[in-house]
Specification:
Length: 276
């Protein structure tokens, strides 16, 4: 039975280790992201909030929209990734949507976003409120990508102009903006593809016509190790009291009530003999 108890204890400890590591990572990583995003919003360095590696720092669309008691700054940038398929590098370009809320009641944490074109083509995304900061963007539920990729808005290899972006929650419209994102706004692809073809890798600095987004590295390894050490110390103490330090007993089992009475009688008898 003791072996079984130790095995169960070990399994619980292993699960606890994973939980401590996971919760610590999520907690401190999210705090770091919030601090970084808040600072960039305060400094109005909105282009640095673009999630793609490559972008054009001049937005292709910028408009302040007032809706009831709320005010929003809508920004759309060109952005691109360098993708590798079977060793062949190619450029995936599109648009990055950023909506910054300056006042008013915030939208929910998640909502639906429908991107419409001048034709019947529509593409659905999931919108999100980044850590409730009033910074909204979108991601594709299938790819987790955040861009309105040009390829998603092509029919028979012909790009369809994006003309409307609609936010809805449970079928109710909560925000809408009319735009005109035409094909001639895509200017990143040519210089970026030329660089990739020449160097067989994406640039790691700004090049002519393309800005480079330096990756933000968030390291919380020391905090994870610290919390795991604390957890293991607590576990070792618990193990000692549960499995090592045993209460004083007679033999392997605790004395029964009857045995206790017999021992008391013996002790009383000894006391009587001594007093004679």
């Amino acid at each position: 039975m003791k072996i079984v108890n130790r095995v169960i204890f070990g399994l619980i400890i292993a699960i606890g280790l994973m939980l401590v590591a996971s919760i610590t990572d999520e907690y401190y990583r999210s705090r770091e992201i919030v601090d970084i995003a808040t600072q960039k919003l305060e400094d109005q360095k909105y282009e640095e909030l673009i999630s793609a590696a490559y972008y054009d720092q001049t937005p292709v669309f910028e408009q302040t929209i007032t809706q009831e008691d709320s005010e929003f700054l809508v920004l759309i940038y060109q952005a691109a990734h360098v993708n590798s398929t079977d060793g062949i590098l190619s450029v995936l370009d599109g648009f990055q949507l950023l909506v910054i809320q300056n006042s008013g009641e915030m939208f929910p944490e998640y909502f639906d976003v429908l991107v419409s074109t001048t034709s019947d083509l529509e593409v659905s995304y999931t919108g999100f409120n980044l850590y409730n900061l009033g910074l909204y963007s979108v991601f594709n539920p299938d790819t987790q990508g955040s861009l309105f990729l040009r390829s998603y808005f092509e029919e028979n290899e012909v790009y369809q102009t994006i003309n409307k972006i609609t936010f809805t929650k449970e079928g109710i419209q909560i925000f809408e903006v009319e735009v005109e994102l035409t094909e001639d706004l895509f200017t990143l692809n040519t210089p970026l593809q030329d660089y990739v073809d020449l160097h067989q890798e994406g640039p790691s600095t700004d090049i002519e016509g393309v800005n480079y987004n330096i990756p933000i590295i968030i390291s919380i390894r020391d905090k994870v190790i610290r919390n795991l050490v604390i957890y293991l110390v607590v576990v070792m103490v618990a193990y000692y009291f549960i499995f090592v330090k045993q209460p004083k007993t007679l033999g392997k089992d605790k004395m029964s009530q009857g045995l206790k009475k017999d021992v008391e009688k013996l002790n009383n008898a000894k006391d009587s003999d001594i007093s004679v």
